[in-house]
## 1
Amino acid sequence: MTLDATDRRILKATASGLPLTPHPFEEVGRWLVLPENEVIARMATMQEDGVIRRVALAPNHYALGLAANGMSVWDLDDTVAETLGAEVGALPFVSHCYLRPRALPDWPYNLFAMLHGHTRDEVEAKRAEVAALLGPAARGHDILYSTRILKKSGMRLAGEG
Amino acid sequence: MRIALPQEALDATDRLLINRLQDGLPLTHAPFAPVASEAGISEAEVVDRITRLREIGAITRFGPFLDAEAMGGAFCLCAMAVPRDRFDEVMTLVNAHPEVAHNYERQHKLNMWFVLACERPEQITDAAKQIERETGLKLLLFPKLKEFFIGFRVEA
C-alpha cells in the first residue's frame, strides 16, 4: 500500500511506542491535531494491508528468564528446503523461521530457526528435536547463542513525515 | 538486559498482561478494556502496570510493529566478524544507523548480527555499503527468501 503524509505522521509519532494512557489513539490524535477516529481508521487500514503487523507488547526474553536464545542454522538440500522449513516453522518452540541464501564459502546454512529456553540445555534439547525432524536432509548445522542485545528499536521511518 | 528479573518482580496480573498483549491490541477508543476486564482491574491500572513493566525492563517495546515489506521496503539480516578489540567501536558505528532495527552479539566467528529495515529495497544496499566503508569490515547479507508461520509467544 502507498502511505500518505498523514499515515506516515502517525507511524512516526508512534515509532518509539504508543502513549501509555487508557485512550492512546486519542492522545496520538492530540499530538497530530487529528480526530481520534481518523487515527484509528488509518491504523486499521494499515493493519489490514499488513503495514502494521499488530499493535502489541514485545517482551524482553532475558528479563523473563528465557536467558538462552539460540539462532539454529541448517544446511538443507535446496530441493527439500521449503517443505522441511515449513515443518520446522510449525514447531511450537520455534519463534522465527526463515529460508535465506547461503554466503559461501563463509556460511553454508540456508535455514534459520530461533530457539529459546531458560537454559542452554533446554535449547540444545530443542535443537536435537529439530535435527531428528530433519534427519539426513540436514547436511550440517550450528547454533549461535546471543550474548547481548546491542540495539532493539524496531523500524524507524526516515525523513520528515 | 541479560539478567532475569526475580520471580517476585511480576505477579499473576503482570504475567497475564504480558501474555495477552503480545497478540495485539484492538484499535478502539478503549483498547485496554478487554484485558482489564479479564484481569479484573481498571484500564488505568493496566496502563500503570505496562509503564512499570517498561521501567523494570520486562518488556522492550509497546506499540505498532511495522512490516517494511508491506510498505514497499525491505528487511535484511546482516552479519559481521568483528575483531574483539574493536567490538564496542563497531557497535557504536553500526547502531548509529537508523536503518538498524535491532542488533545482537552472538557467540560465533560472525559475532554481530543485525537487521536493516528500510523503506525502499535499494536503501539496504546503500546502508550496507556505508557500514562496510565506515567499519572496514565485510558484511554478509542474508535477505529472507521465505518466512514460515510464526505462532510462538513467550509465556511470562
Note: DSSP finds five helices and six strands in chain B.
## 2
Amino acid sequence: MELSFYLVQLLNAIQYGFLLFLVASGLTLLFGIMGIINLAHGSFYMIGAYLAYGLTEMTGSLWLGILLGLPIALLVGYLVERFAISFLYKRDHLYQVLLTFALILIFNELQQILWGTDVHGVAIPAPLAGSIPLTENQSYPVYRLFISAVCIAIAGGMSWVIQKTRLGMMIRAGASNREMVQALGIDVNRLFALVFSLGVALAAFAGMLAAPVDSVYPGMGENVLIISFVVVVIGGTGSIKGAFIGAMLIGLVSTFGKVLLPEMASIMAYALMALILLWRPQGLFGRAH
Amino acid sequence: MSEKNETGISRRDFVIKGSVATAGLAAASVLGPASFAIGGQARVKVGILLPYTGTYAKLGTNIRDAMKLRFAEAGNKLGGREIEFVDIDSEAKPAKAQQLTDKLIRKENVDFLVGPVHSVVGMAMVKMARGKGPITVIPNAGADQLTGVLCAPNVFRTSFSSYQMGFPGGPAVLDDGHKRVVLMYWNYGFGKQVAAAFKKSFLPAGGTIVKEIPTPFPKVDFQAYLTELAALKPDAVYTFYAGGGAVKFVKDFAAAGLKKSIKLYGAGFLTEGLGAAQGDAAEGVRTILHYADTLDNPANHRFRKAFKDATGARADVYAVQGYDAGELILRGMAAVKGDTGARAEMIRAMESAEIDSPRGKLRFSKSHNPIHDIYLREVVQGENRVVRVAARDQDDPATGCSNA
C-alpha cells in the first residue's frame, strides 16, 4: 500500500474521532459534573438525527432543521432533568441506570409512534454535497470535512467556556466539590439543569450533523452509546480534554485496526480501554479517587 | 343422615359421575378434533415472534401485516376455524429468543409458530420447535442450517436461504463482464454463508476474488474499508448489508466517488425498500433477489394494491414472504379442514403446495425451503427493475438435512 493510502486512513480516523468526541463530550460532562450515568445519551443522539430528518423534510433545509431542532433538544433535556433526573441526585447510581434505561425504551417507542420504522436519509445541503479527489479513484466528501471543522469549533468553544468563563468556573468547581459550591451560594439546581440540557443538546447536535452521512433508523442510538462510554472511560470521567484525546485514540485505533488487523477490528477499542485502565484506572485525565 | 342431598343425587353418584364426565371432556378435547369442543369451535392459535422494535422493526411489521392481510382475504378463518393471534416482539435479540419461543410453545400452546426475522433468533426458535413443536413457518431468517442441519418435517420457510442470496450472484456478475471481485459483508453467520455461496459459483466459472473484507456486525462505519477497496481497484464488489447498514454503505460508496470505477453488487437487501433513504446514491446498483417491486405478474399487481390499501405502506419482499407464510398455513389447514391433529396430512399438503406468489411460482424442496426464480435487478429512478432472471428455480443444497 502506498503512503497516500495511509494518509487517507488517517483522515478517516480523525474524522471518526471528531464525531465520537461530540457525543462523548456531553456524556462526560453529565457524568463528571453531575455524577449521572446517562444510558439515554444515545437516545438523544437518535432524537437529534430524527429531528434533523423531520425538520429538514418540513422546511427543506438542513440548516433550518438544525436551527429549529436545537431549542427542541435543549427543552427535552430541561424537561427530562426537571421531571426525572433531578429526583435521583442523592440516590445510588443503580437508580439512575434504571431510570435512564427506561428513558431509552420510552424514546424508542416515541420515535416509532412519531416517525415509524422506516430507514430514512437526509440529503447533504447543496454547497457541501461535492467531493474532493484524493487518489486516482477515491474522493472525499466535502461534508465530512465540514463536520470535522464544526467539531473543532465546538471543542474550542467548550474549552473556552470551561477555562475562561464564570459558568465554566462553576462547572469545574461543581465537578471537584459539589457541597462547597453549594455552600458558597451557587444555585446548584439551576447549574445542573443547565449542564444537563447542554449535554443533551450536544448529543442531539451530533445526531443532526451525522444524519446526512449516517442513515436515520430505529435503534441507531444504542450503536453510539457503548463506544461513547468507552471514550469517556479512557479519557477519565468528567474531563473534556480526556474525552477529546480518548475519541481521537479510538478513532485511530479502530480505523487502523480495521486495515492492519481486520480479524481483531471489533475488539480493538475495548482492548485499548482495558490496557489504559490497567495503566491508569482513573482514565488518562481523570482524577484518582 | 341421608346419603341423598337436595338435588336427589347421592354424594357417591356425584363424585363418580362427575369424574367420568370430567375425564370424558378432557379426553374429548385431547383426542377429538378441536371443532367438537363445547361452546362452538375452538380457535386456532397462531403464535408470531417478530421484531417490532430496533433495526428490523419495519421488516417485522410488514411480515405480520401481510400475513394478516392474506388471512383476512380468506375470511379470517383457517380450515373453517376462527384465528387467535399471540403476537410477541422478538426485538431481534438472540438472548431472548429461547424464553419467548418457550412462552409461545408451552404456555400459549400455539398451533402455528411464525417467525423470526433474525437468523440467530431463528436458530434458537427452530431448535425448540422442530419435531414435536407447533407447525413452524419462517418468513425471513435465512441461515442455511434452518432448512439444513436443523430441518424437520414441521418446519417450513417462505423466504430464502443465505445460499440462494450468494450462489446466483457469481454467474450474474461474470455475465456482466466483471472478473476481479472484492467481497464485503457483515461478519456474522448470514454474511459468511452468502460469501461462501457466491464463491462456490464464481470461482469455478473463472472469477477471481481479489480480497474478502468482512466488517464487524452491526457496525456501520465503512470509511476505512472503502479506502481499502479503492486501493484494491477491483472490477466489482459483491456485498451483503441490510437496513440502516445498507443505506449507509450505498451512500458512503457513492460519496467516496467509487461508483465511477467499481460496479456495486449485492444480495437484494442492499437496495430493498430503501430507495427513499438512499436517493441518487443507489442509481445503477445491481442486486439479486427472489422479488422485485416491478415484477409484472397478476399476483404481484393484486398483492401490491391490497397491501397498500390495507396498511398504507408500500409492499416489499418482506411483506411478500409474510403473505406467502399466510398462504402456506391456509393451504395446510384447508387440507385437513381445520383438524390440527391431522399433522402428517397437513405437512404433506404444505410441502406439496405450489403457490402463485407475487414473486412468481413458489414451490418447496424436500427440506421445506423455497424453490423460486432469482432476479438480477438494477436501481433505475429509485426502483428495483428486473434486468434478467439470474437463476431459474433456484434450489438449496440443504446440507445436513435428514428430510432431503
Note: Chain B touches chain A through 44 residues (CB under 8 Å).
## 3
Amino acid sequence: MKLSSEWLLTDSPETKGQALAGRAWRMWLALLGNPLAITGLVIVVALVLVSAFAPWIAPYSPIGQDLENRLLPPSWAHWMGTDELGRDIFSRVVYGSRLTLMIVLLVAAISAPVGLILGAISGYFGGWVDKFIMGVTDIFLSMPKLIMALAFVAALGPGIENAIIAIAITAWPAYARIARAETLTFRKAEFIDAIKLQGASPWRIIFNHVLPLCTSSMIVRVTLDMAGIILTAAGLGFLGLGAQPPLPEWGAMISRGRNFILDQWWVATMPGFAIIVVSLGFCFLGDGLRDILDPKNEGKS
Amino acid sequence: MLAYFAKRIGMMVVTLFLIITLTFFLMHAIPGGPFTSEKMLAPEIEEALNAKYGLNDPLWVQYLNYLKGIITLDLGPSFKYPGIRVNDLILDGLPVTAKTGFLALLCVAALGIPLGILAALNQNKWQDTAVMMLATVGVAIPSYVVATVALYIFALQLNLVPTFGLDDWRGYILPVAALSGFWLSFIARLSRSSLLEVLGQDYIVTAKAKGLHPLSILFKHGLRNALIPIVTVLGPVVANLLTGSFVIEQIFALPGIGRHFVLSISNRDYTTIMGITIFYAAFLMVMILIVDILYMLLDPRIKLADRNK
C-alpha cells in the first residue's frame, strides 16, 4: 500500500495504523490551515534545531571570557554584541536555548504523567481515593505557583535542577484536575463496562483505555503551559534562584543585563527577545492545537 | 448555608495546617542551619544563637512551638534581622504590595473585561483581531521584560516617570502596568471566549426574538452568565497579582513583601520564608472563599456544595 492522501483520508481505514496515520494527517492539514499555529510550530522546531546544533551555530564559546572586548555593541563579529565579561551574547542565547528546552521538556515529562495518572486514578476509583488525591491537589492548588516554586527552591537550594523540580511540583495538580474531569465523563461509558465484563483489571482499564483518551487534552494543556514554564524558569533565573552563573540562562542574562540598560541596551534586550519569541511560539502552537483537538470547537470556524 | 461556611472554614483550617506542617518540615530538612554561612561563626556563638532561637530542642518541640506561635498569629523571629519579627516584615511590606496589587487588579478588571466584550461583539473584525493579538503578546511576554523595556523608554529616555520609588502617583504607573499586563490579557481572552459561548445560546436568540434592547440582552442575559468563569479565576488572579509582584518589586526597588521574600531566600532566613509562604497561602484561601460567595450571588443556581463536581 503506498502512502497517498487518498489512503490517508479514506473513510474506512482497514488497519489501526491506517486510521491513526489518517487522523494525524487530518490534524496536520488542519494545522496547515492556521497560519499562527504554523508560525508557532516553526519557532518550536527552530528552537529544537538550534539547541541540537548549538556548537555548530554559535560562533564563540558561551562561557569564554574576553575582557578586552566587553560590552561591544552588535556588529558583524558579534551579532548581538558582547556582555560585561566579553562573552558573545549570540552564542550565549544559542546555548541558552538548550537550557530552556531542557527545562520545558523535563518539567513536562515529570509533571504531565504524574498528573495524568493520579487524575485518572482519582476519577476512575472515586470514593475515598478520589477524596484523598483531590485533597492533596487542592492543597497544592491553594498555593500561588511562584510562591511554592520559590519555597521549594529555598529548601532545595538555587540551581537549575532544583528549579526544574520546583516547577514540576507546582505544575502537576492542574493536570491531575483535567485528567480527573476527563475520566469522570467516560467512566460510566458503555465501552468501559464492556471491558470490565471481559474481566479487565482496574489498572488495565486505566492505562489502556482511560489514559489514551485523556492525552489529547493533556497535550494541548501542556503546550499552552510551556510558555508559562519558560517564563517561570526565566523568572527564577531572573531572581538569581534558577540557573547559576556562568550558565547562559536567558532570565539570568536579562537580570544581569539590567545593570547596563542605560548605555548597553543589547545586553538585556537580546535574551529578552529570545524568551518572547519562544514563549509566543508555544502560545501560538498551543492555541492552534486546542482549536484542532478540542471537540467543542469543531465545525465552528 | 451557615453549615456550609462552617465546613468550608474547617477545611481551610485543615489545609492551612497541612501547609504549615509541610513548609516547616521542608525548611528543616535543609542541610545546614540558618547560621551556617561563608563566614564561619565561632562555635560558641553559633551554639548561643541556636539556644536563643530554640534550635537545640527536638524537632517536634520546635514544631509545636511554631504551631503555638501561629495560633497566636506570631510567625516567629527573623533569623537575619536581630530583634525583628516576621510579622513586622510582612506588616512593613504589606501596604506597598497591597496597593500595587489592588491598582493592578482594578486595571485588569476595568480594562480586561471591556476589551474582551469589545472583541466578542466584533468577532472576526479588526477590533477582535487587534485585541486578540495584544492579548496573546501580553500572555507571552514576561513582566520583567515589559518592566525593563518600559523603564528604559519612559523613565530613562523620556523622563516621564521616576525610575524607582513611590513618592508620587507617577511612580505607580510602570509597576502597575507591568504587573497587570499578563492577567489583563488573560482576562480579556477569557471574557471574549466566555461571552461568545453565552451569546450563542438559545436563550439569547429568544431574547432577541422578543425584541429586547441589545444592551439589555448584553448586560442582563449575556454578561451576567459570561462573568461566572471570570469570577472563578479572579481569586487566583488576586493572589497572583500579589505574588507576581516579586519580580516587579525587585525591578522597581519597591519595599514590598515580595522583596523581603526574595531576600529571605538568598539570606536563608527560614522563618521569614515559612512565614510569608503561610501568609500567602492563607490569603489565597480567603480569596477563594470570597469568590465562592460572589459566585452564589451571581448565579443562584449554583449549589455551593456541588461546585467541585
Note: Chain A touches chain B at residues 134, 138-139, 142-148, 150-155, 157-158, 227, 231, 234-235, 238-241, 251, 254-255, 258, 261-262, 265, 268-269, 272, 275-276, 279-280, 282-284, 287 (CB under 8 Å).
